[in-house]
Amino acid sequence: SSFFLLLILVAFCLTPFQTQAKKEVVYIVPLESTVENGLHAFLKRAIATAEENDASAIIFHINTNGGVVDAASKIGKLFKDSSVKTVAWVDNKALSAGAFIALNADEIYMSPSSTMGAAAIIDSSGNAADQKAQSYWLSAMESAAENSGRDPQYAMAMADGNISIPDLKKDGELLTLTNNSAEVVGYSEGTVENQAQLLSVLGIENAEMRNIDETIADKVARFLTNPAVIPFLLTIGFLGLVMELFSPGFGISGIVGISSLLLFFYGHLVSGIAGYETLILFLLGIFLLILEFFLPGGIAGSIGFISIVGSLFLATDNYKLMAVSLLIAVVVSLTVSILLVKVFNKNMKFFKKMVLSNQGLFFIACKK
């Protein structure tokens, strides 16, 4: 028995150890369309997933015209704080906020005929932002380039047309780099034809590729938090509530109005911008408005209105956009209210059935 035990021991010692190396994991994440808070929430979750799984790198497939500065700033911070190597792959374009985000990546690669730059900051009305906002954005572009070891003059020229770079742009124009010029000035590590070539250049072609795509909830949230959609949602919401005040009972206009406002909160909740306390405050406001029909004095209605407006401001991180959106919603709602009472209520039998008469409104006002 000792002889056989010795043979087994010798055989074990002569057998080469074959350790299975842990395979590298690389995540591919799309960064497309408008840059807004919904995109930030999606990318935050994607980066957290990559970090939890000890990924070797995250490749962000970028194709965007830009978007909201606040969202871009938060995404840039996600890139800088990530413990995983971040690679920006500009496939077609990374303009405005997209250029800023790309500059925060550890490495940048571009596809043929792709562009990056034109990063001027504009306000919600499409005009040039004020001097304070311009100064902040210029500083942010400069820092993004410096932190990534790139010459900041090109980043600043993307945001300020007054910065002169004779060989690359005319005075007064914003700098936009092509894939070739970006490589020349050190803003791109190279040009790649496709994803396979990018993986080969990075030396990770044998790694396990994992795609993180946006869910339906992500896409809906991104749509609902789009700066162009928010004024529309609030206008429909306020208009529906106003029309409901003129209508007997509770009908379609009230359902549409409340649904529109709930969609606003849904988008901001999924995006991580708002907490449930904002929704609770909004529902409390709606309850107080309904209660106003049964209580004299107007106190419940006033508190309810303040609660609704307050919940909308608490649910956003862009107070200027919210103020403009509310202004649009109020103006449209008041205009439609006047038309309902002064025009349609006098001339159309349909509205006479749906809308309370002027005498009824006068009676309610006197009663209060």
Descriptive tags:
8 strands, disordered C terminus, single chain, 368 residues
How would you describe what is shown here?
The protein has 368 residues and is an alpha/beta fold. It has helices at residues 2-14, 37-52, 69-81, 97-103, 131-147, 152-159, 179-184, 195-202, 216-224, 230-245, 252-270, 276-291, 299-314, 319-347, 349-354, 358-367; strands at residues 25-32, 57-64, 85-95, 107-110, 115-117, 176-178, 190-191, 208-211. Strands 1, 2, 3, 4, 5, 6, 7 and 8 form an 8-stranded mixed beta sheet that branches. Helix 5 (131-147) packs antiparallel against helix 6 (152-159). The longest helix has 29 residues, at 319-347. The chain is elongated, with a radius of gyration of 29 Å. It starts with a helix and ends with a helix. The relative contact order is 0.09. Residues 17-21 and 348-368 have low confidence and may be disordered.
Structural class: alpha/beta
Shape: elongated
Average pLDDT works out at 80
Largest sheet: 8 strands, mixed
Order of helices and strands: HEHEHEHEEHHEHEHEHHHHHHHH
Range of strand content: 5-15%
What is the CA–CA distance across the termini?
105 Å
Estimate percent helicity. 55-70%
Helix count, DSSP H or I runs of 4 or more residues: 16
Rg over alpha carbons: 29 Å
Poorly predicted residue ranges = 17-21, 348-368
Overall number of strands? 8
